[in-house]
Amino acid sequence: AGRLLSEDEQFDCYAAVAEAFKGRPLNIRLADMGGDKAAQFLSIPREDNPVLGYRGARLLLGQPDLVLCQARAIARTSTITPVQVIYPMIADAQQFYTLRGMFRQAIEGMDHGEIRHGVMFEVPSACVCAREMLKVADFGSIGSNDLIQYLFAVDRDNDLVAGDYTPDKAAFWRVLGMIAEASKETGKPVSLCGEMGGQTEYIPKLLEIGVNSVSVSPRIISLARLTAKSRLSAIGS
């Protein structure tokens, strides 16, 4: 749109989707701008390395009006169906505390339904502290695209190092295992999203380590369910 959508415009977009969910939880990520998702209308100064700069949680903390507007639209949406709010690019628990506090303050006095608050695991520092993060969050979501990029210090858009941008590395699965273990210990669910979620060959291993929810594109939902069912049957036998 070339501009920030108003509260009413955001609500109209969310409500159209919420109506289709019929009481099932709707995941909505807070504005994840900056880096590879630059928004010109925010007038952010040019950065030499935007992927490591003013983006995600840092941008939201510096642009509170973004949180205010979106939070109010989300609160209105939650009267239609439960909403799970995902906080992007969280580096430590303090960022999550602060942003969640800003969200709650923004909707104070509003009528709203069930709203749950979750951490996006895509910055390695958050993954290392997964247990502490999940103790205070309602759920977690693993952002595989950025996590791979930051974990291996590889630019996913650079053809020269494209070979290093892969989930097929032991260190990556060790980190996923840490998050899954923290999920079990705290009783907080963890899901996975990103390009990896669309590659069904990873579903069995994800189920094995304890990640039992994966975001996939509509065209492969049936295949993903079949793969998961097959793996769960094998585990149960």
Structural class label: alpha/beta
| Count of folded domains | 1
Determine the CATH superfamily. Phosphoenolpyruvate-binding domains
- Give the termini separation: 52 Å
Describe the protein in words.
The protein has a single domain, classed as TIM Barrel, CATH 3.20.20. Helix content is 46%, strand content 11%. The longest helix is centred in the C-terminal third of the chain and has 17 residues, at 170-186. Helix 9 (203-209) packs across helix 10 (221-236). By secondary structure, it is of the alpha/beta class. Helix 4 links the parallel strand 2 (83-87) and strand 3 (115-121). The protein has helices spanning 7-21, 56-62, 64-77, 93-106, 124-128, 130-136, 144-151, 170-186, 203-209, 221-236, and strands spanning 26-29, 83-87, 115-121, 139-143, 190-193.
Task: List strands and helices in order, with pairings.
Blueprint: H1 7-21, E1 26-29, H2 56-62, H3 64-77, E2 83-87, H4 93-106, E3 115-121, H5 124-128, H6 130-136, E4 139-143, H7 144-151, H8 170-186, E5 190-193, H9 203-209, H10 221-236
Parallel strand pairs: 1-2, 2-3, 3-4, 4-5
Helix pairs in contact: 1-3, 2-4, 3-4, 6-8, 9-10
